[in-house]
């Protein structure tokens, strides 16, 4: 996410790091749903452990609400930094969506079974599909999925105060957050599989591959009639990316947990230990390096290799973010929100 958000120049972005302009998907469009997928897995594993340790639901609810509010506020802070122009405040955002999904999924874990969660996730995807295709938008009609002219955009303009990312609508808007919750639920269901001590790790991997492949194929097929679209977070996009996430996770799980080849993954472990901290540093650092970035654009991001130079800047920012989180990891300091 840091590399995607911090190119050397937005006029020369390395092609795989671009989002799809509208319908369709690129590798970059998988980053956000993969993150939410992992949030879902983490909820199942961590809350299960805390409840087994004797923590009450009321105490867990208090922690959950506090954490969701803090993540939401950090997202607002990053959106305001460095000018803090509250007249241009943007309420939706990446961390804000993560906060809402985390809150809802955590509550679902505490008060529903995994079967109920599966039903809720499925119903959300079906209802969202029906709403976007069959609920008429005033002045536009039904079934229109064009930018700014769909039901999600109409609801954003109606209910979201302040600035929105695309003027009259926001990719992290209100209606599209519901299928994002379904992405979180998909991760929770995978977490349930991982927490089942009655299934060997090898069989868990096989189930992950099977479930991931089916979700990926079904999402691809659904995309024929309900296009895969990150901005709308369409139902086909949820299944497509959750399927891919499960396949990638299964592969990593097999290599690291079963084969024991874990040394190469240390880089990711360090980032994961203080993930939100790394993301915040990645949001603040480019602003602090503004003058250096201007020089870099003028003198390095030029010619036929401009896109590569832009990528190298993003990688450099990511490596700079690694320095403080590695120090925290070595000191066994884990900043929990």
Write the layout of secondary structure elements.
Elements: H1 2-5, H2 31-52, H3 57-80, H4 94-111, H5 114-134, H6 151-159, H7 177-194, H8 201-222, H9 235-258, H10 266-273, H11 275-288, H12 290-299, H13 306-330
Structure description:
With 337 residues, this protein is mainly α. It has a domain at 28-260. Helices cover 65% and strands 0% of the residues. The protein has 13 helices and no strands. Helix 2 (31-52) crosses helix 7, helix 3 runs antiparallel to helix 4 (94-111) and helix 4 (94-111) crosses helix 7 (177-194). The protein is globular, with a radius of gyration of 20 Å. The two termini are 19 Å apart. Keywords: Membrane, Transmembrane, Transmembrane helix. It comes from Parapedobacter pyrenivorans. This is DUF5009 domain-containing protein.
- Main pleated-sheet profile: none
User: What's the pLDDT, averaged over the residues?
Assistant: 95
- Give me the secondary-structure category: mainly alpha
Order of helices and strands: HHHHHHHHHHHHH
Number of separate strands: 0
Span between termini: 19 Å
Radius of gyration: 20 Å
Q: How many DSSP helices?
A: 13
| Basic shape | globular
Low-confidence stretches: none
Instruction: Classify the helix fraction into a percent range.
Output: 55-70%
Q: Strand-residue fraction? A: under 5%
Oligomeric description of these chains: single chain
Protein name: DUF5009 domain-containing protein
Organism: Parapedobacter pyrenivorans
Transmembrane segments: 31-47, 68-87, 93-111, 118-137, 173-194, 206-225, 237-256, 263-285, 305-329
Keywords: Membrane, Transmembrane, Transmembrane helix
